[in-house]
Amino acid sequence: MRLTRRHHAAHEPASTRKVTMGISPTELNSSDVHEDTQPELVKKKIAGRSPTQIALDRLKKDKIAMTCTVIVLLFIAIAIFAPLLTDLFGVKLRAGDPIHDTDQFNFPAFGPPDHGFTMKAPFGIAPNTGDDNLAEWFYGARTSLAVATIATVISTLIGIVMGLVAGFSKGVGDKVITFVLDVFLSLPFLIVALALAPIITSRFGDKPDQLEFWQFVALLSALSFFGWMTLARLVRGEVLSLREREFVQAARVIGVPTRRILFKELLPNLIAPIIVSISLGLPAYVTAEAGLAYLGIGVVGVPSWGQTINKAVPFFDTYPLYLYAPVLGILVLVVALNLLGDAVRDAFDPKTRR
């Protein structure tokens, strides 16, 4: 009987034999017996999860990213509900009375810097005009986030379209778009922005309503048309590698239209770099809007953190709170957006994790 069993085992296929490497059943533990079933459980756990879902799970586990998300959402809520917040704190936008709210030196008649804290003006009031600084701060957050968001959306759309077309087309199309991209990269952004301001002012200076609109358009144009090049280059590089993949070649063979290949086949594979570009572009636009407003190129007729900084610089020695409030707002928002952008980049590309 023992010889028969040995003879039968010798003729069994190697794939059906159970090799124990000379270990008796009493030496096998539970992890050795069930190790074949563990990969199946892992596969079932991650089955059906897209790379975006995996990245979002990584992001949720990042405490810094979650803290920055809360801060950014707080600023967004302030921007959206600025009118309600001004009513809640009992302050009004640009409702100051220089005769009653300022003294003979045009300094605040109540609140800082010469008087104690008062809920009538928690951030104090502006010299010369008597406008409430807290109301200006609330509406300044709205202006900064609105300009940054619109500029980010416009520049992202331009960058995606130009990058897709340049990467997928061959020959003249790619060369023309690359040349345009290089031209925009060579133009000095600040000089172009400074040149736009006097042109708009001289053209619409006698029409305040139109001046406000065209200053806003000029600001968005300067930010958007000088912010799409980096994303376009990134998208173009990704498309150059993706267009040679089998699924793209198969789509071209069966006659799928080029537009569908670009936006249905290629674009979904570019979600990760696009999201990273957006998350890193927002803080840059917030800073750029404040900087241009400080130089007098920003929006007119509406509150802006940059305009407040421009007005507060001469009063830095005697009224520092007037300057600190908008500077701290920009600092906290930009740092939170930058840290959140770094976390998003690390979540979508684990190889860059620090």
What does the model show?
The chain has 354 residues and is mainly α. The protein has a single domain, classed as MetI-like (MetI-like fold). It is built from 17 helices and no strands. Helix 4 crosses helix 17, helix 8 crosses helix 11 and helix 15 packs antiparallel against helix 17. The radius of gyration is 30 Å and the shape is elongated. The relative contact order is 0.12.
What labels describe this entry?
354 residues; MetI-like fold; mainly alpha; disordered N terminus; 17 helices; 0% strand
The CATH C-level name is: Mainly Alpha
Biggest sheet overview: none
Rg value: 30 Å
The amount of helix comes to 55-70%
Mean pLDDT across the residues is 80
Q: How many distinct beta strands?
A: 0
* N-to-C SSE string, H for helix and E for strand: HHHHHHHHHHHHHHHHH
Shape: elongated
CATH topology: MetI-like fold
Using the 3D structure, state the CATH architecture. Orthogonal Bundle
Number of helices, where a helix is a run of at least 4 consecutive DSSP H or I residues? 17
Unreliable sequence segments: 1-10, 12-37
Superfamily (CATH H level) name: MetI-like
